[in-house]
Design brief:
Length: 205
Amino acid sequence: MIERIRFDEKGLVPAVVQDANTKEVLTVAYMNKESLVKTIESGETWFYSRSRQELWHKGATSGHTQKVVAIKTDCDQDALVVEVLPDGPACHNGTTTCFTEVVQQNAEVGSVEMIAKLVSVIEKREQEMPVGAYTTYLFDKGIDKICKKVGEEATEVVIGAKNRDAEEVKWEAADLIYHLLVLLQEQKVSIYDVLHVLKKRHEEK
């Protein structure tokens, strides 16, 4: 594969690092042939620093390494997408992604990233159990209460569908997804494992 990569006149190729689960872009860095080889051989991301003019291993100092799932090239073979499983923040500022400043966003368009953000909030609620938070209340009441809420919300979705009420279906489906994510967290079942099952089923058809 490396032989097909078209490095620029400085021997570099841009690498877009993407979370393999959420598909969120984490950062954009550069690789030369040596760092790409190290990335492939080690299974973790290595880049080339243009400012320091040296290789660097992501997480060598912070411990926030990135396990490589796949490396893809574009049609011109002069850019890479590196899909990873991050062990901590990608940005040196401590954020999940380096892309935190919103220049423009259409508020009417939803995003699958919302699921990842919601999962993160639910995990944090279970860890910190802040007083007054509804998610804290659910975890405090336990599995019976959580299961009851999942059942209730599923029933509300069915009723909305039977009534041909699209607006009700939309809102009740959102409630169902939220409570289902709480249930998965309580059971320590990752939503990404669920998505993997769906992907595997699709591939088998």
